Amino acid sequence: MDFPRRRLFRMLLIFAASSGVLLTLYSSVGQRSQEPGAPARSITSPRAFEPKAPNAENRKPQRQLCQHRLSLAIHKDHHFRGLFDLSTPVLLWSGLFTQELWNNLSHYKVPYGWQGLSHEAIMSTLRLLKNPESAELFGPSKPLSCIRCAVVGNGGILNGSRQGQKIDAHDYVFRLNGAVIKGFEHDVGTKTSFYGFTVNTMKNSLISYSSLGFTSVPQGQDLRYIFIPSSIREYLMLRSAILGVPVPEGPDKGDRPHTYFGPETSASKFKLLHPDFIRYLTERFLKSKLMNTRYRDMYMPTTGALMLLTALHTCDQVSAYGFITSNYQQYSDHYFEREKKPVIFYANHDLTLEAALWRSLHNAGILQLYQR
Ligand SMILES: *[C@@H]1O[C@H](CO)[C@@H](O)[C@H](O)[C@H]1NC(C)=O
Ligand SMILES: *[C@@H]1O[C@H](CO)[C@@H](O)[C@H](O)[C@H]1NC(C)=O
User: Fold this and answer.
1) Which residues contact residue 19 at a Cβ distance below 8 angstroms, ignoring those fewer than 6 apart?
2) What is the largest CA-CA distance in the chain?
3) Rounded distance, CA 237 to CA 235, Å?
4) Which sign, positive or negative, has the C-alpha torsion 158, 163, 165, 169?
């Protein structure tokens, strides 16, 4: 389904007004150079596709096996079997940084590449992600038999849903952007294992939703941050966060990362999505018709979509809460709004396509989409 032109244009204006910085960013970089349909590159660290064997040495109480193991559901589905490549590296770290990677990614603009970005800024950031744990989302304490994840979007469907306990019962909980918790514990839970964002979406959320309760980014000892590279800003913020210094240059110059992420600065606290992974996801799962229009340079999957697809490539079983459903018109844009607001279809995203993807992944048994 296509957006009516006029609506798209109106949304573009709204979008332009609300996030001028991102718009400037996207219009200032060059053309995409990737051929449509080019396969995503697979570099290293293949991930087992088959169910992992339970470890006999494991002294922890045996967890129940997966009820909805997504790799099995993918295997059974003709369409999705051809799309999923679970061996694609999800995270970027220094172990994957080579001259060849630099040469290749320099051909693609952000968020799928490094065109026009400073080699020094990127290299000095990746150098800090030097432990192999930077290549993994889950630490050594992960359950061996079945990693069960909940990804919590911010959709209005969660208002009054009473899903909090169920969400918190998952091994890992992903949240993103304006993830308001206070006052909505019964509906969205309180546990946060990962918070995903671009610097632009994080700061916009703090500005736009502070009056609705989003006054700080979730923090906590066990919480990890997932940076979605969409400009040089993520690399600069990430490096400054690990070094514990103010951001030295760019639009966030002078920002103190600990005001967002708390006092802990260890590199293991921060993860960075691989640009190749974002391109692979976009080409295979969210190849929008917008990519063939003049909005092509702005188009990007939503933060929620990138987090949900990240979970689908790292967890054994995934439930999605607060993601767009076919009856979205019954609900407010976000669960934390005081009055019902219609869902905004920004011109740089394709929510219609995302809704169709979640529905078909749910129907294929690959994820469990919360609907009501
Ligand atoms: C980058 O690498 C991928 C996978 O190896 C390849 O398909 C693509 O053509 C390369 N792009 C450039 C510009 O070299
Ligand atoms: C949230 O749910 C409450 C109770 O069901 C309802 O009164 C309120 O209007 C809802 N808020 C929005 C923004 O839809």
Assistant:
1) 200, 204
2) 62
3) 6
4) negative
Q: Give distance in angstroms: CA of 203 to centre of ligand 1.
A: 33
Coil/strand/helix, residue 112: coil
- CA separation for the pair 166, 241 (Å, rounded): 32
127 lines ligand 2 (CB under 6 A): no
Beta strands in 100-152, from DSSP E residues, in sequence order:
148-152
- C-alpha to C-alpha distance for 281 and 278, rounded to whole angstroms: 5
pLDDT of residue 61: 43
Percent of the chain with pLDDT over 70: 83
CA of 1 to the centre of ligand 1 (A): 31
pLDDT in tens, 50-74: 344 444 444 444 456 888 999 999 9
Question: What's the whole-model pTM score?
Answer: 0.84
Q: What separation in Å is there between the alpha carbon of 117 and the centre of ligand 1?
A: 18
Q: Please list the residues that pair with 320 across neighbouring strands.
A: 151, 369
Model confidence pLDDT, tens digit, residues 257-277: 999 999 999 999 999 999 999
* Residue reference for tokens 């940084």: 97
Per-chain mean pLDDT for the chain:
86
Which amino acid is it at 290? L
Closest ligand by atom to 162 CA: 2
d(CA 258, CA 263): 5
Whole-angstrom distance, CA of residue 286 vs CA of residue 203: 25
| Residues 366, 79 contacting (CB under 8 angstroms) | no
Tokens of 174: 């992903």
Per-residue model confidence (pLDDT) at position 296: 83
Distances from the Cα of 68 to the Cαs of 31, 55, 72, 128, 362, in angstroms?
A: 41, 20, 8, 37, 11
